[in-house]
Amino acid sequence: MNRFFTLFLTIFFILILMTGPVFAGNDMTGHDMSTSDRMGERFHESMVDGYMLSYYLMDLRKQKDDATHTDQGKMEMDKPHHIMVYIMDKNHDPVIKGKVGFLIKNSEGDKQRVMAMYMSKGFGITADLKKRGIYTITTKAVFGEIKLMDSFTYEIK
Asked: pTM value?
């Protein structure tokens, strides 16, 4: 009987050890920002004070229903680019309440200031990135007592 009891305890502990990782989870699973519920293509990601900001860009001219065609058949829009920023806090939870603003400067110094709207667990704007060149994109997010500033450059080719 003692041998059976020892075998039982050994199998029991092995099973517990094998199931531990399943319930523990991966510390970075909440940071998977490539999920299908994101709008556009991810073009930048950064960490600011422990918060993760993931930026997605979508060219609205590729959507035929939302654009007006010129005589040449080319789609024209004043602000043909949609930018989304998804913010995750230190606990990997999405930030869904707050104010987010963008300042976008092209290489000629032209500025666009746009306040984002909350949508799809992120904050989105439409912007004009039609000119080729390097854009500096600065984001300010305010929620509660937290203020985040992020800035990066992106090249439109």
From this structure: 0.70
